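REQUEST ID: PR-0412
SUBMITTED BY: lab tech R.K.
PRIORITY: routine
TASK: structure prediction, single protein chain
INPUT:
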Amino acid sequence: MARVIVDVMPKPEILDPQGKAVHGALPRLGFTAVTDVRQGKRFELEVPDLDDESLAEVHRIAETLLSNPVIEDFTVRVDA
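STATUS: complete
OUTPUT:
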């Protein structure tokens, strides 16, 4: 059984109000080292037999269901 991680993030040119809210709260909580925050989503998918075909299917799932390709980018990686 393999675990495949799909990370979905807003594209750089897209406003991220959740990230801005977190960034605005950090100084009020005493955290000053962070200069920007972007908030995204992480999906963990269990795949029984990881091969090229199942990895290609995960890519199709990521681009059609897990992300909105107009405003989001995604990466797919296999968890070691």
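NOTES: The longest strand covers residues 2-10.
REVIEWED BY: pending
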